[in-house]
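Entry 14. Ran structure prediction on the chain below.
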Amino acid sequence: MFDEDGTILGEYFADLFVAGRLLVELKVVRALTSERVSQLLGYLKSTRIEHGLLINFGTAKFEIKKYIWAPR
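Output, structure tokens:
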């Protein structure tokens, strides 16, 4: 993972990485909080990947949300 100026921040291992274009983050929590969303958006930004899915298996109803990060 890289900072905005290109500084290496560390390693990140995605739960799923599809075709080099989609980052998938899997969770088993009671609710998807803003912290979970911020985590995914941070991963997208630092890896420079545009599309991400946040999938939660921890509720009675399966949750899946798509997020897009686009550099300005």
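The chain has a mean pLDDT of 88. Will compare against last week's run tomorrow.
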